[in-house]
Amino acid sequence: MKISVITAAYNSEATVGEAIASVAAQTYPDVEHLVVEGKSDDGTLEAIERAGHDRMRLISEPDDGIYDALNKGVRNATGDVVGFIHSDDFLANDGVLARIASAFEDPAVEAVFSDLVYVSQADTSRVIRHWSTGAFHPRRLKYGWMPAHPTLYLRREVYERFGSYDKSMRIAADYDFILRYFSQATGKSVYIPEVLYKMRVGGVSNRNWPKIRQKMEEDMLAIRRNRVGGLHTLALKNLSKVGQFLVRPQRS
To answer: How many separate domains does the chain show?
Structure first.
């Protein structure tokens, strides 16, 4: 089983090398790493080339934002399973993809996801938030449930059936796609209750109040267009984040 991992990179010179290295270090052998670089203004392209490995393929051309880049990666992926590693994040250990592949050994499984921790920008060993997803059940969607998108691995045919990320959304196209899939899913999903992914704090969706407001507006659009709830769904989705901060900060 081949796994395609997609990294969208733009102006991430300081961190993209660690993201690439975390994929290069994976013990699972059948991996394709697609790095989609959007003609950055800094030294991102050079950093990618320095960190490159023999399982990596680079696409470097202008794009229309992160979701356009992710769509491009999915279109070019040749793996049986597709997942993502963002350019400022990294896989938690060298056995992550082997763990995911083992869950896909059941041919009925379409989706695999796990826990995620947010770590400090300055010290990635310091955990700020712990996102523990829990198993999927359709009724949980209206209560704001969603797996952490970077932990979600899907069979490639899922994208063929359900389409691409809506690039008119600038922040919440991942939530929209997740609702589109899980509200109609007929295949099995597997929740791995382990931290397999580490994300640096400070993403675009919570950078400032205008971004937070835009995120909430796009989340509400996703909820309505996928018919999974209403304002209470948005409220519960946001409230669920509070518990992620209640885990005592720790060294990862």
So the answer is: 1
252 within a domain of the structure (yes/no): no
43-87, pLDDT tens digit by residue? 999 999 999 999 999 999 999 999 999 999 999 999 999 999 999
CB-based contacts of 203, cutoff 8 Å, min separation 6: none
- Measure the CA–CA gap between 64 and 168, rounded to whole angstroms: 9
Residue 49 lies inside a defined structural domain of this protein: yes
Q: What are phi and psi of 142, to 5 degrees?
A: -75, -10
Residue 57: strand pairing partners: 34
Specify if 150 maps to a domain. yes
Quick: pLDDT tens for 4-34.
999 999 999 999 999 999 999 999 999 999 9
- Mean pLDDT for 114-119 is 96
CA nearest 5: which of 37, 39, 30, 41?
30
Q: What percent of the chain has pLDDT over 70?
A: 95
For residue 91, the SS3 value is: strand
**Mean pLDDT across the stretch 174-186?**
97
For residue 82, the enclosing domain spans: 3-245
What's the pTM value of the predicted model, to 2 decimals?
0.93
Which phi and psi angles does 206 have, rounded to 5°? -125, 30
In a domain, 219, yes or no: yes
State how far the Cα of 93 lies from the Cα of 133, in Å rounded to an integer. Answer: 19
The span from the CA of 220 to the CA of 235, in Å, is 10
Give the CATH number, domain containing residue 207. 3.90.550.10
What span, in angstroms and rounded, lies between the C-alpha atoms of 54 and 108? 31
